[in-house]
């Protein structure tokens, strides 16, 4: 899930719609709402946040440096002004990147992926047995062969891979894929997506790489386990 912090409703809703068109969940806040939420929300919900997009006014009101003690994710400022001085001020406030509008949402997603790679000093993919899962929106590969997946199934696989070695609950998967404020989709839809994903992976791998345990959740596993 990507959080959009913006004072203007039209801008906030516009970016939310663009992210949704790319299959990325989002949640919109005004600066004061986000400040209150980030200080009070449960840690599991914070782990669902992939990045934060901020309007210029939101950066001024939030002071990104002050919220990093609660959440450490890429923070990108969306600037309305083509000014070096303004750009430097936004960086000094604590954001990781400054992007001048208008900007395509795919560029924003690419910048988020780049920031995460630099921060974690990792490649843009994870290998789990014969399965290679990319973190930049590409379909996964099995033994070098591309496995086309619908966006939701691909996002779920990316989330499981990011948490490789740890179990994640159905609620955590739902929050990461659909956003924690989506009341229009039932949480049980996760089970349907995972069932379809498991079937496709099993057909290619010869085993089920998604290990699930009741009440404990899901994790990726290799055939050797």
UniProtKB/TrEMBL annotation:
PROSITE patterns per record: OMPR_PHOB (PS51755), RESPONSE_REGULATORY (PS50110)
Cellular component per GO, a single term: cytosol
A single GO BP: regulation of DNA-templated transcription
One Gene Ontology molecular-function label: phosphorelay response regulator activity
Record-annotated OmpR/PhoB-type domain positions: 123-222
The Response regulatory domain, residue ranges: 1-116
Annotated DNA-binding residue span(s): 123-222
Keywords per UniProt: DNA-binding, Transcription, Transcription regulation
Top-rank lineage group of the source organism: Bacteria
Annotated protein name in UniProt: Transcriptional regulator
Lineage: Bacteria, Pseudomonadati, Pseudomonadota, Alphaproteobacteria, Hyphomicrobiales
